[in-house]
């Protein structure tokens, strides 16, 4: 029987629609040099705002954390997610249409994925799950998503991830958020699964004439994926 590790997993979420509204009226509360670097890299618009949001959130989480946490960030068109852990981790949030991902599934799925791919929403769920593993491995898409597989369904349990036929020491769990899938990957010792996932939502606010991010007043447990089954 599997046990939980007690590892600290903390998911931070930001709804980007509210951020885009704030950013249209105020500059981001980043150091001038960092903000200038982002402005040189990104033209005004959503990509710049998403990059500023990632930096602000990561800085805020590090200030609140004990020690040096592992952080991983992902965003789609409307949601930014940051996973904080005491060990290596990866997160992916994906709102691409299921049909579009299914059309190119042969690029990131193999025969071992057929059972999971056949399920409703399977294409988007597998993409998110595999990308979160690739990020936890530290390789990103260079890992080759078609070489990442799962011993169980990550939508039902913390599934063990394999890469190129070998164990990774990583477990992955996906969640259907309605219109998007969220995938979390975390390191776990053999025979164990990650423990409860804490959830904090962040919203933009005015801080001395600049927009910044503020956490919700309470931190909840993400019940849907808090334990293995």
Can you tell me about this structure?
The chain is α+β, with helices and mostly antiparallel strands. Helix content is 28%, strand content 33%. The chain has helices spanning 16-23, 32-41, 46-64, 98-103, 114-117, 122-137; strands at 3-4, 9-15, 70-75, 79-85, 89-94, 148-150, 159-163, 166-176, 181-187, 192-193, 197-207, 210-215, 220-221. Strands 2, 3, 4, 11, 12 and 13 form a six-stranded mixed β-sheet that branches. Helix 1 crosses helix 3 (46-64). The mean pLDDT is 91.
Number of helices: 6
Taking pLDDT < 50 over at least 5 consecutive residues as the criterion, the unreliable ranges are: none
- Average pLDDT for all residues: 91
- SSE succession: EEHHHEEEHHHEEEEEEEE
The percent range for strand residues is 25-35%
The coarse overall form would be globular
- Distance between the first and last residues' Cα: 10 Å
How much helical structure, as a percent, in the residues?
25-40%
Q: How many strands, what sense, and barrel or not for the largest sheet?
A: 6 strands, mixed
Structural class: alpha+beta
Oligomer description: single chain
How many strand elements? 13
Rg result: 18 Å
Short synopsis of the structure:
The protein has 229 residues and is an alpha+beta fold. The chain is built from six helices and 13 strands.
Features:
alpha+beta, 13 strands, 28% helix, 33% strand
Secondary-structure topology with pairs:
Layout: E1 3-4, E2 9-15, H1 16-23, H2 32-41, H3 46-64, E3 70-75, E4 79-85, E5 89-94, H4 98-103, H5 114-117, H6 122-137, E6 148-150, E7 159-163, E8 166-176, E9 181-187, E10 192-193, E11 197-207, E12 210-215, E13 220-221
Parallel strand pairs: 1-10, 2-11
Antiparallel strand pairs: 2-4, 3-4, 5-9, 6-7, 7-8, 8-9, 11-12, 11-13
Helix pairs in contact: 1-3
């Amino acid at each position: 029987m599997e046990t939980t590790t007690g590892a600290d997993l903390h998911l931070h979420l930001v709804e980007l629609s509210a951020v885009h509204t704030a950013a249209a009226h105020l500059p981001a509360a980043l150091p001038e040099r960092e903000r200038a670097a982002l402005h040189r890299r990104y033209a005004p618009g959503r990509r710049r705002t998403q990059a500023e949001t990632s930096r602000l959130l990561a800085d805020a989480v590090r200030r609140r954390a004990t020690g040096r946490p592992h952080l991983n960030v992902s965003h789609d068109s409307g949601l930014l997610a940051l996973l904080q852990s005491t060990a290596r981790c990866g997160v992916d949030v994906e709102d691409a249409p299921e049909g579009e991902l299914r059309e190119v599934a042969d690029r990131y799925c193999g025969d071992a994925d057929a059972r999971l791919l056949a399920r409703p929403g399977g294409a988007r769920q597998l993409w998110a799950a595999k990308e979160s593993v690739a990020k936890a491995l530290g390789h990103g898409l260079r890992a080759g998503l078609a070489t990442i597989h799962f011993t169980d369904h990550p939508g039902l349990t913390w599934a063990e991830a394999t890469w190129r036929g070998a164990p990774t020491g990583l477990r992955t769990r996906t969640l259907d958020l309605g219109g998007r899938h969220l995938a979390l990957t975390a390191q776990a010792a053999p025979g164990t699964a990650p423990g409860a996932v804490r959830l904090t939502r962040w919203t933009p606010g005015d801080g001395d004439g600049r927009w910044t991010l503020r956490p919700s007043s309470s931190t909840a447990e993400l019940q849907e994926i808090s334990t293995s089954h």
